[in-house]
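Exercise 7. Given the components listed, write out the predicted structure of the assembled complex. Treat all entries as one system.
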Amino acid sequence: MDQELKTTCLHDEHVALGAKMSPFAGFDMPIQYSGIIDEHNAVRKAAGMFDVSHMGEIFIDGPDAEAFVNHIFTNDVRGLEPGHILYGMMCYPDGGVVDDLLVYKEFESGFLLVVNAANIDKDYEWMKEQVEGYQAEVFNDSDSWGQIALQGPQAEDALVRYFGIEELRELEFYTFYDLEDEDGGRVIVSRTGYTGEDGFEIYASPDNIKDMWAALLEDGIKPCGLGCRDTLRFEAGLPLYGDELSPEISPVMAGLSMFCKLDKPEFIGKDALVKQKAEGVARKLVGIELADKAIPRHGYPVELEDGTVVGEVTTGYHSISLEKSICFALVDSAYSALDTKLYVRIRKNTFPGVVVKKRFYKTNYKK
Amino acid sequence: MSKVIEGLLYSESHEWVKVEDGIAVIGVSDFAQAEMGDITYVDLPSEGDEVEAGEEFGALESVKASSELYSPVSGTVVEVNSELEAAPEKVNEDAYAAWIIKVRMSDESELSALMDAAAYSAIAK
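Answer.
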């Protein structure tokens, strides 16, 4: 039996806008409104907004909150300033990934962990199992929050027009402010995103998020679906849990070691990751650029010229911003060096390509 | 509402066929292009290839996914619309103008298995 799909607070808005809806991570979500290419280009050249209310918000507080977060998180939150954010993973002891997430260091006390929608229940259970022995509380508050990602070079102007607060321009990349809505409810504005462009993620009550969506729409901000969210993050070299990170694909394999502080005294998965780093891994995630317009898709085999299979595609597109066919692929480490010639099998034919850097598109973050 | 044109024949896999002197001109329906979204690549067969009714002869790729194309009839490919290689978006713009291949039919009786506009309208939604 299919489980009934959940909906976000903006579901009625998506339907009214004529969005193409599809199940994603247990939610009925908008894949596109005007079209993936149009929405993608709006984010690269102007601004677009995404309903990301399906994402999970888990709060951790208590005397041992910092020690506990540092125990389950690959990045290092010790001494992280309030209002600052870190990206990283939660790993299993074998180095496989439970989830990738953002950790917000709260102004008062504790942390907010923002996790992938598909993993909310799994992550929450994992955290509750690991918290034993720590004086810390884990609270899954995902249902109380809506979230809009406002992304693109004109996002800052739109944000300031909406809130009427000029100081929001000063917000640095990977930091956040706390605001209060008219009813005294909390609004979090963070300079983060998943598109490779400057932009913001705004967390607030479902009612507040509905008002904000309507106001931004009125202001001319283009509604964007999960379709272009994927093409944008992919071009910017950002991983998607399930494709580029998983219980089988460790951060070291995915080339995300910079988010794993292996010099921390301890964290779950540290020993395995240290070993992988020292001894090397069997497979690595690479970028491949094809000479042809044929499109590599998830699961397509990556081969050598003689037909030997050496890996498979994890995500691939005909890139909208770069107008080339590119993909991420997990390949035998022997074939992961830049400029290595590899072939992707697409239906009956193979197409030649070369290994390139995974960040295909030059990102435009506000530094 | 997607457009269905009178006088064409349609397959269950959403290809249309227009018959001209023993040649089947084949494309995809307006419903199919709308379902796929922005089409970015058309994988065409070569002229001279043999195709079988119900068998794959190529694919359309949208940003998001790839959709195989199935030939509604058997025969020999006599022409491919190579204009679509450079401009695949023409399928989105007008799915009935953007024909994909022309097939010299080996068995015209296969056409009787296809739907007319009225029957296809019932499934194209």
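Discussion: Chain A touches chain B through 18 residues (CB under 8 Å). The helical segments of chain A are 11-16, 36-45, 65-72, 120-130, 155-163, 206-218, 226-235, 270-279.
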